[in-house]
Specification:
The protein is built from 15 helices and no strands. It is elongated, with a radius of gyration of 25 Å. The protein folds into two domains: 193 residues, no CATH class; 91 residues, NusB-like (N-utilizing Substance Protein B Homolog, Chain A, Orthogonal Bundle). The chain is mainly alpha-helical.
Length: 315
Amino acid sequence: MLNRRQLRIKVLQALYAYQQSENKQITAHEKLLLQSVDQVFEMYIWMLSLIVEVVEYAERDAEDSAAKHLPTEADLAPNLKILHNKFILSLLKNPEYLAAIKKYKVDWSFDPEMARSLFYALKAAPEYQTYLKNTDDSIQADKDIIRFIFKKLIMKSPTAEQVFEEKFLSWPVDKDPMQAMIAKTFKNFSNEDFAKNKLAELSADWMEDREFLVTLFQQTIRYDQEYQQLIGDKTQNWEADRIALMDTLLMKMAICEFMGFPSIPVKVTLNEYLDISKEFSTPKSNSFINGILDKVLSELKEQNKIRKSGRGLIG
């Protein structure tokens, strides 16, 4: 699931693209921003679909084994318990999942080797043999082997990693929220009544988070010159072209939150952007951004331009 830090990163990437683009139509870039968020959900659906593909390959493997020239008794009477796995059956009856498969045109036929190699790895795993012998067929018990397929096989597979990297350019950033959504799905799918099992949401409160996302993006652009002036006054000893664009964007976003988001505490904003700078900017950016924002914050407080309320008063 997407948290506020990840939403800030999405806005940062969108602002960077906006700055680098000749097209300065905010609505066009806003649309791309929302599409980048939707891609997290699409990635989540593709991952669920791959899990299903691995499970369903058991039937293909059984058919191939039975068709051998000299099949063994085991080849002719395979244990196909996994085809009745309740987590998978619940997923395949989930209207939202089925609609998403159609919407995103999810189809693994372009790489038939993927499910095959992953299933063979599953088949050789002691965990799979234990699962086949387990007489507990509850959805809770059935989730264990699906969790194993996801965490120990797919997420450890260099081939799967490469496929997702090629399909989703944002894979390195979006992999974590996608994994959180899969984990939430395991938690959600706990009812023997399949109709009560729900897919994970993009965020804890998407309506509120969407407003945060779009407003932060729009306001950072709208008040760009004002924020630039605040930063410029504190960096007079620095040549403008020596300040990394990413640093400038992070500071402008932080100032935007200081002034335009009453419910977000100043300390939360500072900590978030300093943390993001460690991952997305230069090694010295953290201390530089901290120093400039401290000065900007002092000035804004003196001018009574920081007005926090509710949760924003905390810290």
